[in-house]
User: Fold this.
Amino acid sequence: MDKKIVFFDIDGTLVNVPHGLMHPTQKTKDALIEFKKQGHKIVIATARGEVPQSVKDIEFDGYICNDGHYIRFDNVVLIDDIMSTAQIQKQMDVYRKYNGRSMYNGHDGQWCAFLDDELIIKHREMFQGTSKRPIGVIENFTAQDVKAISCCVLFENADDLWNAYHELEDEFTMIPYATGLIRMDVYNKGFTKGTACAYLYQKLGIDYENTYAFGDGVNDIEMFQLVKHGIAMGNAVQELKNIASDITKSVDDDGIAAAFVKHFQIGE
Assistant:
C-alpha cells in the first residue's frame, strides 16, 4: 500500500467559527479516523499559533502551525522558529508608527497590549467565536520579554497595512489581508505553510503523487502548488479554486467527508 498524507487548514476548512461550526463534523471525524486506520497520515497546516481544543477531537499525526514556522510530528518538534529581540523591537516600532494593534504568539505565551481594542475583539469573534477577554495573555512587556514565532497585527485601513508591510518586507515573511478585518500575519523569513508541507512529506518519504491538501484561503495557494492534489472547499476564495485540482462541498456541508468518498472511497 502506498502511504498517503493529507494536510488540513483549520478555519473555513475543518471549522467555520463565524457560522457557528465550532468542531469538525462527525462525518469528517469518522472519515479521518478510518483514513488513519488504513495507515495514512493526517496533518494540520494552519496560520494559527496553536490548535484550538475543538480540533483536538481528532488525533492528528502532525501539526504545522504559524504558517510553517512550528512543525511537530509524532510529538517530536522539528521546527521552532522564534524571533529575535531585535526583530520584535523593529516590529513594535513600525506598528506604533502606523497604529497597528499587534498580537505576538509563541509556545511559552501570548503578548498583546490591546486586548480591549475594538479590532482585537473583532479578531477574537472571528477566530474564537467569542468576544470574551482571554486569560493568561501578557499585556505589559518589552521586546526582550517576547518569545514569539508569529505576530498578527491589525490596522484601521489598508494604507497603514501596506506602509507597514513595505517597511518590514526585506526582513520578514508576511501574509496581508487588505479587505475585511485588515491585518497581516508576520513570521521570520524561511518556511511557509506550503514549503513546510513539502519538507514534511519529503522527510517522511511519502511520494509526491500521494500528497493532498484541503484549504479555503489565499494563504493556502502555495500549499496547493506544492502537493499533488489541492482540494478547495466550496466556500474557498476564487483565487484558490482557480488552481485547485478539485473543488468539494463547503465546510458547512461536509465538504471534507464528501471528498474522502470521492478520492479515497471512505465513508461511502
